[in-house]
Amino acid sequence: MITLASMGSVAPMTPAMPANIQVTLALAIILFAIGLVGFLTRRNMILMFLSTELMFQAAALAFVAFGRMWMDLSGQLMVIFILTVAAAEAALALGLVVLLYRRKETLSSEAWAELKE
Amino acid sequence: MTLAVLLIVLPLIGAVLCLGVSERAAKTVGLIASLVVLAAATLLAFEFPAWTTGTFWPNEEGWKLFTAFGVEFRLGTDAVGMLLIILTAVLIPCSMLVSFSAITQRQRGFYAQFLFMESAVMLAFLARDVILFYIGYEFTLVPLFLIVAIWGGQDRRPAAIKLWVYSFVGSVISLVGFIYLAAGHATDTGTPINFSVQTLVEYGQTLPASTQWWVFLAIMGGFAVKVPFVPVHSWLPLAHGEAPTAGSVVLAGVVIKIGQYGALRFAFPMAPEGALALAPFFAALALIGILGMSLVCWVQNDVKRLVAYSSIAHMGLALLAMFAFNVVGMEGGILYMVNHGLSTAGMFMCIGIMYERYHTKDMEVVGGLMQRMPVWSVFMVFFAMASLALPGLNGFVSEFLCLMGIYTADAGMKTGFPGILGPTYAFLAALALILGALYVLRMLQKFVFGPLREPSHGHGGHAHGGHDSPGAHGHGNHAAHAIQDVNFREILAMAPLAIACIVIGVWPKPILNVIEPCAANAVAPYVKLIERDLANPPRATADESATKTTAAPAADKGAIQ
Amino acid sequence: MTPAILAASTNLGPKFMLIAPEAVLFAGAVLCAVMGLSHARAFRAMVPWIAVVALIATFVTMLKVWTPEAATAAQLPMPMLGKYIIALLCVVGVGHVLASIGSVDRAVERQVASGTGAFDPVRVIQGEFYAFILLSLCGGMLLCHATDLVWLFLAFELCSLPTYVLVAIGRGADRSMEAAIKYFFLGAMSTATLLLGFAFLYGATGTLELSAMRESFQMQAQTGGIGSVAIVGMLLAVIGICFKLAAVPMHFYAPDVYEGASSPVAAFISFVPKVQGFVTLIVLLGTVGWSANGDSSIPPVIAAVLWMIAVLTMTLGNIGALLQRSAKRMLAYSSIANSGYMLVGILAGPTVGIDATLLYLLTYGVANLATFGSLAAIERNGHEVDSIDDLAGLRVRAPMVAAALAIGALSLTGIPPLLGFWGKLDLFVASAESHQRTLLVIMALNSGVAAFYYLRLVAMPFVQEPTPRTQGVSPVPSVWPRLSALIFAAGCIALPFFANQLKGEAAAAARTDLDKQATVAQSVEK
Amino acid sequence: MSTVAIIALASAFVTHATAHTPTASMEPALLTTLALALGDGAIAAADGHAVDAAHAVHSTSGYADVGPLHFVKAVANTDFAWLKWMLLAPLVSVILCGAMAMFKVKGRLPALFTVATFGLSTAMAIALYFQFGPTLFATHAPLTVPFMDWLSLTWGPGPFQSFTANLGFYIDGISMLWMLFVTVLATLIALYASEYMESDLKAGYARFFFAVSLFVTSMLILVMSDNLVGLYLGWEGVGLCSYMLIGYYATQPGATAAAKKAFIMNRIGDLGLALAIFLIWTNYGTVQYDSLFQAIAGSTSEAVQGGWSKAAIPFLLLLAVCGKSAQGPLFTWLPDAMWGPTPVSALIHAATMVTAGIYLLARMAPFYTVQAIGPEWAETALLTVGWIGCFTAFIGATIACGQFDYKRVFAYSTISSLGYMVMGLGVGTAFGGVYYVFTHAWFKALLFLTAGAVMHGMAGQVDFRKLGGLLRVPGFRLTMICMLLGCLWLATAPFSAAAESKDIILLTALTSHVQQVQWMGWIGVLTAGITAYYAFRVWFRLALGPVKIEPGADQHADHGHDDHAGHADHAHGGADAHAGHGAAHSGGFHPHAPGFRISLVLTLLAIGSVLAGLPSYLAHSQGFNWIQRFVQNSSAWMRAGNSEEHGQILGRDAHSTLFIIATTVVVAGFLLAWILHAKNRALGDRLRASMLNTTGLKWIPLGSEHGWYVDQFYNAIIGVPAWLGAQLLAFTDRFVIDGVIVAAIGRFPGFVARVFQPLYTGTVQSYALTMAGGIGLIVAWVVWVWLSGGAS
Fold first, then answer.
1. Average pLDDT score over residue span D668-688
2. What's the domain count of chain D?
3. Of C50, C134, D509, D577, which sits with the fewest C-beta atoms within 10 Å of its C-beta?
4. What pLDDT digit, counting tens, does each position of B176-218 carry?
């Protein structure tokens, strides 16, 4: 089997940096920022969750972009796992939201601010 | 080694037994356990071969329990430690005896706490490893806190908390100093970390002066809280004021001695240059303590607070003498530890006995007790005189040596070991002679002599109901039945201390012989440093005085012949 | 397929052996989940014990399979880390399981037992509860096997996700819902941050393989410094991890969540995520520096940020705890502060610091469980005890619990010779040996502040007399939480006598093989 | 047992007159010393070296330089090991009496033990005199006897590398003299007290004798010790006993206050002594008398080194003297010490303890020489001593004139007399000073004991205006006659023992060639006149006139001290008011005449007082003075030039002139007292009243009565400010340091925590926002570091 170490330094140290990579990266960061801002500004828990999903996917996009930059498939491999995890989180989040909605009949996160200093 | 370990383990066993037996039997079990420890300590004292050599014993290879942390379970102590061990072993049963009737609730816990404390104190005095010492040093805090907080007076909680936080922060600062030193040793030599006292002492002395300065500041700074030095003393009056009698006795007699012992055993040898550089600072603090706190004593009406403040003044003198860095001062300072432990503990016992009867410590409320309790008065006056350093009693020997040590600690003087303080410090410190008389006599005048004053019915009742301390109010209203003089049990508790006071005062030779090599050891690094300073005089007079040292006595002799 | 992926796949043999313990645990988790739905009460009652047995089995399996040779063969960056962490999680995990016995489904089970209610699979959660505990532990263990970011991320998430559910279901009250939602949303945000950081790291090195990443960073360092992308990535990852550590600035959730969660769950989430976070941090930081000879070569920016985080975390944690009247909230702040201490070990780096952190994890875990477990072992009129005032005179109501609580608190304070002291001592020494003098002093002062609030947990039960308010305080019906607290309190006293062994294990766990691999690689090159 | 003591005592007096003649003939060497002492320059020149040099200094720097010191090395002799029993005997009594006090024994046993052990000590003192005296007088070599190890440290081989202060005895002339009169007087007074204190049989009898025994033990340690630290032990020991005995009536607030005052004043002096000891040790490397004196004698004035540290020694010693002997600024404790039972006043505060200061001065006389401290300082030191004594003598006498409490009169007279003694040492005649100590001890003890007898009989009445004609009251005749004798002696009536001794001091002063010393002498003469006045003022008032007895308030003696305010009222009210009341009060009261033991002791003391003059009377026929021989064989005499080389006074022969002057002055004082207080008391009272009414003169009677307001002055400038300062400190400590600073530091973390508390709002968004803000801050910081080029 061939590991990086045993092969010496075979990884390309100067990655190809096509222009569209930067664009993709910028898009990823913008997506992340949108997700963050959405998370900070929305009160609806569903929307908040979607914002976090946006952040996840931004990261996934960045992986893809970097994978492309390095001409390396593992970035895309990572995306698959990210999607899986995101799905798991979605299941969990929706379950939680349903639970909460049942209790207070509202989706607003501000209804849940009993615990504080 | 076995005996030394027993000294630590026996109280622990006793404590567990105490917790296990019935409430009624606890005091007996506690007393017996402490007596067994006393017996063990006595045996150890007889077996101890290093009384006059200044070396450490047994100091054998210990158990490799904590070697991964650089800590070895190595026990050993020198004569000073032995003295303090004996003092502890004596004080604990005495303080238990004096609490038999004072403590009526949660007795199991009470006596167990004392035994826990005894174990920790023994460990601190026996440790030949810094961390081992620290374990004992720090662990005393838990039983002490509980004793003050559970069985104390009205304001016991704030007092206990203050005691806790102050002491904890102080000891952690010391620990930082130790760790810094040990880590420096490890990185410098490339060896694994090692907390052995011997190693750290040897390493510490090789450090550059600027590093030693910090090391000393940290280690001594921590111990200064325990001693206590002036700006960090404010926990002590409170703790003493609120602690139950036995707690005060042990606090004054043993626990704060660990601070001074730590200074002697660790701070001074580990960073001599730092100590020299910082001596004026600490000496100034000590002087402020001596004079300021004596004056504060003068105006106290709460007699326990008074004695607590006097403790600060006394310990200031003891530490000041140590900072003289000559044999006389060091010896005086060390002896002062023991003596202060005896006389102050005695005073606290007396006050406690009184408190148990009157439930007040206010000299304005209660006084003239000589008429009510003549035998008690004898003890009170006796211990007061001992703390006044009356010649013939123990206090004198130590105070005299302290003052002489401070006085002669001037590089320009002809005495054996010039130190770094000198006459000015001595003059100021000696004012304590007068101030001490001032407050002690005021206390006696109000408290023992004069017309009999006792709290009225109403007041007594108020003092009773006013606090909910479980320990303090076992008795019914004292006004209902006549106040009794001390009983046999209480005399039994105080008599050993009184006898020790007299013996040390009249026949200090043995104890001085025992302390002397230790003092010489403690001073040894400083002698080199001071001689070096004299050889490269920072002051112009140094040369002159050096020649005078040798020439003057010779000239005297010549003239006589 | 890139060589890295190839390498990963061909490596699978030895790695497969090593995850046998996790496999056992996973099986246990599945069994728990299934048994929890059983109609037979006896089977349902067995669920915690299945968990316990699973953990013990995991432990035994780990002992069997986790030999140095196997670990080296698996080319783990820190070969013995897994052994230590798995052992730690198993042992403390047993405690957590014991401490939570009887805390879930109590009402339902009582109804079933008294015949007033029928068994309804929808209404019971015990099976999931223990399954999630085991799964989370499993995730924590799997982290140690990580040789690449994918594994790291998946294990990280496996550890995290069940805890969100645990918080929600542990108590079933509004407050625990609120706690869960906070925990989950903020956790998701931080995970996203972590993930973005991973992406940047990937971008900076072009590999997900940790050892290759390290290679790459070393090369970068030799040729003009580690790039800014990598630094930013690392920073983002560290910040993401900070959430798990409850470290500044990601600590805000902790008091609320701990307060809202049930005591056993609070105990769990104050410990397991810390293990998770620190293992991740150690593994991750191993890629940017740290050689076996002890030089800490984390990029200065990262070190500086970690330094600030450490200082702020311990300080804000400790001072925050001062103001609390809720015991769990106070312990939450205490857990924040303890993260700060442990970060000092990280800063001190290998040979002195990492093992100190690992050891501290152990001491913290034990003492923390003794404390939280004591809280879990008492109730007031059938409700969970939270306010410190409820602890007044506890020694009368529940002497053993009071003792365990006090010992745990004293151990957390760092009173020698209890276990906590040795952990702290090791951290102090580590910071001193790595010339972190300022940190040393700040840490010392912080423990002074901490001494003040931990004292309440000693003073309230032992010094304060019982008040009318504490009339209804009693131990919970189940004996196991009490026993768990007591066992771990006893551990605080007894474990110092095995300090050498513990320290030895921690030191072995902290040993990194990365350099050995690198040396091998270089020699091959030549 | 007590009879043994009395026999021993009697034998001392019977034998000493006869014994010294053969003793003297056995000592040819003594002649030299004597001649030297009497000022025979030729012999002195033959004896010493460097006479010329000494004389040269003599003429320029006054009387401090007396040529080479006469040092004779002490001889250790363990044959005298039995001396320790002198200490141990009273110590046994201490222990027994202490035990009896503890176990509340209510009997006369304590007195018996005390008197017996004191008698034993007395016998041993006498035995020592006979066994060792001849040797001492022949060889001049003091005796040292080791007793026990006490304080000794050694840390090196060098001369300054050890500190030895063991308990051992150093017996030379003055210690022997002190041992003799202390033990004898203590025995007598203990005997007296055994009767006097009987009213306290059930209360403090044992305690009283415990303290008295402890006192004698300490006093003997003080005088017998062979080193300064041992002396210090005794010094503080007697202070403690003084404290215990002044405060004996512990229920009286005044008594305890007086006791405290005495102790603290003494402590100030003790501080001086302690510091002096340190200075001596640092300069000479020893505190043993023998080696100290050797060192001093071996150095010359040119070789004196050490600057201030040597020069300060005599002044610090003087401070100690001031404390113990109630001199100078520290005299105010002694009058208050009269709160103690009268036997205590007699023993401790008149005869023995207060003379410890004189002992110290005499013992440490070598430190007042040019050899020790150089010429300038030596003269200054001696003059300071002289002036302190002189002024104290004068001030004490003036205050004594204004007192109405006869016990306080005697107290002030003690201060005045002690002033004379100190002055004697200061003007250079150790002999005069010591001789006066000796004579004073007898007659002052006598005076106090007679005063005590009167108080004892009159239910504690101490105001002599309320008593009168006691000479005619049955049972008090002996007392009054003894008091007359005492007053005569106090007034230095011509040919009295006191006059013989005091005249030596005055003679030395007046014939000095130093102007200042002569002034001291003239003030001394004036003081003698005042002394005669106030001494007889008391006696005339008490003994003569119509019988008047107003009993004191208390049923037993000594409790009846009015507080000061009350006292003042009586004074202001004038004497007239009392005349009318006197008879009425005396109606139902039966004075309690002294019993056998008191009478016996009074008689013996009276005899002793008379005989105390013998050494002087016989000196003319014998050729030497018995007391002088003690002094000459002691460290006090190392200053050989203590020579009374009596020149001339006012251009006439010194002896006769002084006699005439002194007699005139004394008689004048006597007559004044006669006129104002015996012949025409109304005149005296009117005079006083008119002075009180005259604005310009008011201060004289008032000031005199109130001790010139020294107490009030001290209180105002030291006591009150110190108390206020201490209150301030205590306040600062408790409420500023602990209450504000410590509290602030303690609250600081909590305060900071509160600052952060608003961040924990409880909503997810706000947490997210803060977290994001935190991340932003970190990123911003990193960017800032990058921009500033810090990252590499």
1. 90
2. 3
3. D577
4. 999 999 999 998 998 889 999 999 999 999 999 999 999 999 9
Q: Which residues of B touch D156 (CB under 8 A)?
A: 416
Phi-psi region of C415 (alpha: psi -120 to 50; beta: other; left: phi over 0): beta
User: Which residue range(s) make up the domain with D722?
Assistant: 716-757
Please name the residue that has the structure tokens 């010790």: D225
- What are the beta bridge partners of residue D154? D162
**Cα radius of gyration (chain C):** 22
| Cis peptide bond upstream of B58, omega within 30 | yes
- In terms of average pLDDT, the best of B409-413, C519-523, D19-23, D712-716 is D712-716
Q: For residue D538, is it within any domain? A: yes
Nearest-CA neighbor of B435 among B322, B284, B306, B293?
B293
Q: Which of C358, C412, C428 is the best residue to mutate to test the B interface, defined by the most B CB atoms within 10 Å of its own CB?
A: C428
B86-95, B98-107, B416-425 — most confident range: B86-95
Query: Which chain C positions have a beta carbon within 8 Å of A114's beta carbon?
Result: 174-175, 178
Mark yes or no for CB contact B555/D303 under 8 Å: yes
Residue D745: list chain C partners with CB under 8 A: none
ipTM of the complex, rounded to two decimals = 0.88
Is residue D77 helix, strand or coil? coil
Chain C residues inside the 8 Å CB shell of B200: none
Whether D250 and D314 share a structural domain: yes
- The answer to whether residue A23 sits within a structural domain is yes
User: What is the secondary structure of C163-219 as a DSSP string?
Assistant: HHHHHHHHH-SHHHHHHHHHHHHHHHHHHHHHHHHHHHHHHHHS--BHHHHHHHHHH
The reply to whether residue C252 touches residue D762, judged by beta carbons under 8 angstroms, is: no
Nearest beta carbon to residue C525 from set A8, A67, A73: A8
Q: Does residue A11 lie in a domain region?
A: no
Q: What is the distance between the alpha carbons of residues B177 and B195, in angstroms, rounded to a whole number?
A: 12
- Average pLDDT for B130-149: 94
Structure tokens at D639: 């200053």
**Are C47 and C127 within 8 A, CB to CB?**
yes
Answer yes or no: do D304 and D444 share one domain. yes
D165 DSSP β-pair partners: D151
Is A3 among the domain residues?
no
Give me the amino acid identity at B274.
Answer: G
Q: What distance in Å separates the CA atoms of residue D785 and residue D790, rounded to the nearest whole number?
A: 5
Which pairing describes strands C383-384 and C473-475: parallel, antiparallel, or unpaired?
A: unpaired
Cα(B27)–Cα(B100) distance, rounded to whole angstroms? 7
Domain count, chain A: 1
Are D225 and D291 members of one domain? Answer: yes
Q: What was the pLDDT predicted at B10?
A: 95
pLDDT digits (tens, 9 = 90+) for C259-314: 999 999 999 999 999 999 999 999 999 888 765 444 557 888 888 999 999 999 99
Structural domain range at position A80: 19-110
Answer yes or no: do D401 and D449 share one domain.
Answer: yes
Here the CATH number for the domain that contains residue A35 is: 1.10.287.3510
The amino acid that residue C248 corresponds to is V
Which tops the pLDDT comparison, A8 or B22? B22
Query: Taking the mean position of all CA atoms in its chain, how far away is CA D107?
Result: 32
- Measure CA B410 to chain center: 27
**A4 assigned to some structural domain:** no
The interface residues of chain A toward chain D in range 14-53, judged by CB-CB distance below 8 A, are 36, 39-41, 43, 48
Least confident of A91-105, C66-80, C310-324: C66-80
So what's the pLDDT on residue D784?
A: 86
H or E stretch at D468: strand D467-468
CB of D656 within 8 Å of a chain A CB? The answer is: no
Distance CA D689, CA B150 (A): 69
Same domain, D656 and D767: no
* Residue D697 within any structural domain of the chain: no
Mean pLDDT computed over B227-238 = 90
Question: Between C225, C232, C243, which is nearest D792 by CB?
Answer: C225
